[in-house]
Each structure stands twice: as C-alpha cells, then as structure tokens.
Amino acid sequence: MKEIIIDTIIDSLKLLPFLFIAFLIIELLEHKIDNKKIVTKSKKVGPLFGSLLGAVPQCGFSVSITNLYATRIVTLGTLISVYLSTSDEMLPIMLSSDVKFSTIMSIILIKVFIGMTAGFIIDFFLRKKEEVEIKELCEHEHCHCEKGIFGSTIKHTFNILGFIFIITFLLNLGFEYLGEDNIQKIFMKDSLFSPFIASLIGLIPNCGASVVVTELYLNSAISFGSCMAGLLTGSGIGILILFRINKNLKENLKILGLIYGIGAVSGLIIEIFMRV
Questions:
Q1: The three-state (H, E, C) secondary structure of 42-103, written as one string
Q2: Which residue has the higher pLDDT, 204 or 110?
Q3: How many Å apart are CA 170 and CA 154, to the nearest integer?
Q4: Residue 175's CB: how many other CB atoms inside 10 A?
Q5: Terminal C-alpha separation, the chain
Q6: Higher per-residue pLDDT: 79 or 32
Q7: Plot region of 218 (φ>0 → left; ψ -120 to 50 → alpha; else → beta)
Q8: For residue 5, what pLDDT band results from cuts at 50, 70 and 90?
Q9: What is d(CA 260, CA 264) in angstroms, rounded to the nearest whole number?
Q10: Which of 156, 135, 86, 148 is nearest to 114 (CA)?
Q11: For residue 26, how many C-alpha atoms fall within 13 Å in the half-sphere facing its CB?
Q12: What is the pTM of this model?
C-alpha cells in the first residue's frame, strides 16, 4: 500500500507543471474570445461554431451554452454539438502524459466532426421557431473569472490534480490487487458492449468523468473506441445545469438520451472500424 501511495503521489506531481501551463493557455483563450457572441450571432451555422469552440476545454463553456439554450438563443443542434465536442480535462491530461500529438488531434477532430454532424442533423429535423427570452445567462457559471486568469488557472489545476490523484490511486490499487486482466474484464475491453459502459461513465456530470475515461484509456483498460464513447458523452457539468435551469424534464431526458445514444453508437462504430 505504501508503494502504491508513493507512486501515485510521484505520478500526480509530475503532471503539475504541465497542467498549470495547459490551463493557463486555456484561460487566456477563454478570456480573449467572446464564445457566446460567436455562437449566438450565427444561429444557422451554430453547430459548426459550437463543435469547434466546444473542443477547447473550458470549465464554463458547456454551462454558458446550456444557459443560452434554456432561453432558446441557440438551437438544440448547437447545444448537442457543444456537449459532444467538449474536451473537458482530456486535453491537458493527455498533453501532460506524453501522448502522441497525432492521437490527441485524432480524438479532437473526431469529436468535432461527430458533434458538428449530429448538430446539423438535429437542427434539420427538430429545429423549432421560438421567441427569444432574455434572461441573465451567466449566473450559473463557475469559472471564478473574478479571481483573474492566474487565480482561475491555479484553482482549476489543483482541482484536476486532486481528481487525477484519486483516480490514479484507485487504478493503481485495482491493477495491484485485481490485476490488469480483471480490470479490462470489468470494463469489457474486448467486447462490443464496452462503448456503452464508457458512455455511461462519461455522462457523470463532473469533470472527473473525463479524467476517469482518459486514465482508463492511458492504462489500456479500455479501447480507443470506448474512450471516444466516454469522451463524447462527457460534457462536464453542462447536463447538470440543464436539469437545473430548463424546466422541461421530458425534454432534458430526451437530450440526455440523444447524448448517450450518439456517444455509445459512435464509439461502437469506431470500435468495429478499428477491428477491420
């Protein structure tokens, strides 16, 4: 146990400078680009901008779009495109873990493509004409922008470092006492059902979900297709905010079902394609 704890601390601390730099760059981008204005001014091509901007791992972007959707300033397709393309904590973790740049770009581009495509299809079939209701849109954001860029960066870095420490410890514990083969069996690594399990993990309304999925993939406990399935459904706390501010429970459940279905099926298709 002592060795597991020491290894976990060392592995986590190695990531600290890389996480800080990654989140500092992300915070600079977030403060310099008016994402909400870009999306709201381009409703017809909202899924395009939503999927591109969602790929930038920002703590408040999926929350912002959720608020905008609740007032019908953006379309359902735009909301779905953002949820599916949101990278959350995947990018800084992979960058700090020396994952090949080509692999990282593949994941991001696949998420953007699936998010954009799904968004346009949904808008084509389900778009409704509704009057825009103006409300306060940012009251539920938790980016702590008032603390400045460095304050937000430090807070986010240590929050995610804490998640990484916990997940790494649990994985190290699992690999030590259960064994790698048993871990892979739990998540059905070699089964076509694995993407459906990973998608459920991704739906957890917390940035820890993307940490879990990413760490499982980096530890070879799940396949690339399952990793994509989990990352596609991982939208941070966006889903949680949707259920909190959007009063139509039936609609919220449909959106949840859409996210899960698209993520799981996409992961399954990728899994089959990788085996061919």
A1: CCCCHHHHHHHHHCCCCCCHHHHHHHHHHCCCCCHHHHHHHHHHCCCCHHHHHHHCCCCHHH
A2: 110
A3: 24
A4: 16
A5: 41
A6: 79
A7: alpha
A8: confident
A9: 6
A10: 86
A11: 29
A12: 0.73
Tokens of 271: 């899994």
DSSP states along the chain? -HHHHHHHHHHHHHHHHHHHHHHHHHHHHHHHS-HHHHHHT-STTHHHHHHHHHTS--SSHHHHHHHHHHTTSS-HHHHHHHHHH--TTHHHHHHHTT--HHHHHHHHHHHHHHHHHHHHHHHHHH-----------STT----GGGHHHHHHHHHHHHHHHHHHHHHHHHHHHHHHT-HHHHHHHTTTTSTTHHHHHHHHHTSSSTHHHHHHHHHHHTTSS-HHHHHHHHHH--TTHHHHHHHH---HHHHHHHHHHHHHHHHHHHHHHHHHHH-
Nearest to 217 by CA among 106, 83, 59: 106
179 is written with which tokens? 């064994």
Task: State the burial class of residue 250 (Cβ atoms within 10 Å of its Cβ: 0-12, 13-18, 19+).
Answer: exposed
**Amino acid at site 122:** I
Averaged pLDDT of the chain: 78
> Rounded CA gap, 229 and 245, in Å?
26
User: Locate tokens 């592995």: which residue?
Assistant: 11
**Can you give the length of the chain in residues?**
276
Between CA 117 and CA 94 the distance in angstroms is 25
Percentage, residues of the chain above pLDDT 70: 73
Amino acid residing at 181: D
